[in-house]
């Protein structure tokens, strides 16, 4: 039975730190966001026991996107403001949400032959202008939801296309490997979303592996923040270093693996390790990262061989086996084995 966890793009450790700030313009949006996310997380645990309904859509090579406007309320989905066939409107946030859903649909279709999130033509729904100064975006198991940010620490959450791709990929994982959202399997769940979020951005921009910035959430941080993104796949731990946000805690290798009870066992922190492994594979192979490195990761995620409680080493071994199956004993397998070795995860 597939179950959808409640996944937000801004990790709790960032919001926790902001919530302890002495300036009310900093702590009030953070506390409000944390309280709201905690409520939604509880609701998600209650509803996921029902699992995911059987797909009812018809696979199509065209997305079916609908955008709603919450009007700064917290009721979903809100008022319908944009259908698939509508031309761009005056609301840039609506237009970006529509484009981001489309870019995600296109990468999965063109690169991997996948028809939407569930591979059965699932309509893509998004709600924008959610809540009051809501500092997050999330996939709730059925749709995307975007806050506008507070305008100071975080900007509009539709700005980074990889954030949209990241959250929708939680839906792909939900419908395939269904990785448990705790510990290493949860960090893999987060990492897979970062990997494909980055690939969606690279595909949309026509960037090769060496042209990509390998950042997650570039353009999201406000003008007061010393940082360039939420996470860096190229150099985990360097995305931000700010008096208010703190320092990016992501490790790049198992030597610095973080053991914590917070954030479901550090799922947003330790995801830096498999993230970095993917970056190393993609950069070693060169060219378009979605073609070889992405194909390996996609096949490993969707091929049925990944357990819901998979650990890093399980995933590493599966990517190695998948690489040999897809490409034989060439440059690809050497890149995969070397990358996992560099981050300290055994792949054999």
Chart the SSEs and their pairings.
Layout: E1 7-8, H1 12-19, H2 24-47, E2 65-69, E3 79-82, H3 92-112, E4 124-130, E5 137-139, E6 144-147, H4 161-174, H5 183-205, E7 215-216, E8 231-232, E9 241-242, E10 246-247, H6 263-266, H7 272-285, H8 293-302, H9 312-327, H10 331-342
Parallel strand pairs: 2-4, 4-6
Antiparallel strand pairs: 1-5, 2-3, 5-6, 7-8, 9-10
Tell me what you see in this structure.
About 50% of the residues are buried. A hairpin with a 4-residue loop joins strand 5 and strand 6. With about 350 residues, the chain is α+β, with helices and mostly antiparallel strands. The chain contains ten helices and ten strands. The strands form three sheets. Strands 1-5-6-4-2-3 form a six-stranded mixed sheet, covered by helices on one side. The chain has a two-stranded antiparallel sheet with strand order 7-8. A two-stranded antiparallel sheet has the order 9-10. The radius of gyration is 19 Å and the shape is globular.
Which structural traits does this protein have?
348 residues, alpha+beta, six-stranded mixed sheet, two-stranded antiparallel sheet, globular
